Amino acid sequence: MYIAYSVNSQIQYRLDFLIEHCILAVAFFLPISLDAATLFLGVGTVLWTVKMIAVKRLLFKRTPFDASIALLVILSAASISGSPDPGFSFYNYYHHMLRYILLYYLVINNLNSLQQVQRLVWAVMASALLVTSYGFYQYVHGVDISTFHWVDGEQFPDLKVRIFSTLQNPNLLAGFLVVVMSLAIGQGLYTERISNKLLLFALVGVLGACLVLTYSRGAWLSIVAVATICGRYYNRKVLWLLLIPLGALFCQDAVMDRLMSIFNPTDTSSTLRIALWESTMAMIWDKPLFGIGWGAYWLVYPEYDFFLNNPAARIVHAHNMYLHIAAEIGIPGLIVFLIIIYGHTKKAMDILSHTNNRWVTGLMLGIVAAVLGLAVNGFTDYIMFNVQMSMLFWLLNAVIITIWQGNGRCNK
């Protein structure tokens, strides 16, 4: 019996080791290659299943948000019935939703110590450094953005380069950078070792420089929100320490012109966004309960094209997270999604307020700031339309629950 128990323990230990490294690989490859991240997510899920078979019991930890997540899954599935192409919507739905749910529960059920969470966060930061390096490479060697239609050439004649690195679009890169900067700022503020503090804030500086070069106006506003919440919960002086260097970067003419264009009604990007919001609200008005169908926005938009009047135009999202979600899966689906965001954020704030572990405090502050950044960005864009950014969002939520479940250990 002892030998059998020992063998089973060794098998479980090896499976735990492999599953953790699959999760680390998902976090690392997430902004670099969706295919690689998906591969490791699949392998990790298979190993988790093998582990449950080996120990002959269901290894599944319940969370306070299981019911809300299940309701979101159901409402999203129900929206498929309203899609003009149910086959496409179903294919899109299960490929995306399955990734989000598997990643969320894989992390929660297989990371059991603070050290594992620390390694996960460092994997995200290491990946961000690699992504940023490639972004700088693009800037140095130049990227012709004229064919991408990301910038109004008449409004910004001097703006020739917007970096996007591995994330296909400058706004997506900017959103990713805001999330990682938030994590680094939170940990940098609370770490006690000077060497770690310098390292983390050096990373913030590098990511911030890359963020400026994306020329993403929504992300710039998001980082102001991040600095504000860090100043609110740590020290108000931090607000100025973070905003002054960013302000120096924004003093460049091209950057300032881009920033001030937010308030310029003649900017085609801003005008298009307003037109998209009007079209999206019309979609919501017509199908408020279950929406137009998961992933079906680009299929339905031509029917509500009041601005472009171009049947060939392919508009994939509403440039507003809240309107887009309400349009595709209905107002009840949006409400459930907001409940999930609020619930996880409140849980992170509760941990932040009660834990005695400074690293956990910094991590929770960073995650709250990251989610706030995504929420602010969501008013003018929808970067979580991108699968990688949505997976990152669910990864952050899973980290909150992992820390909450092990709160006794985290206080030590």
Automatic annotation (TrEMBL):
It is found in: Membrane. It is a multi-pass membrane protein. One of its GO terms (cellular component) is membrane. The keyword Membrane applies. The chain crosses the membrane at residues 67-84, 90-108, 120-140, 172-191, 198-218, 238-255, 276-301, 321-345, 357-376, 382-404. This is O-antigen polymerase. Keywords: Membrane, Transmembrane, Transmembrane helix. The keyword Transmembrane helix applies. Its main location: membrane. Residues 204-338 form the O-antigen ligase-related domain.
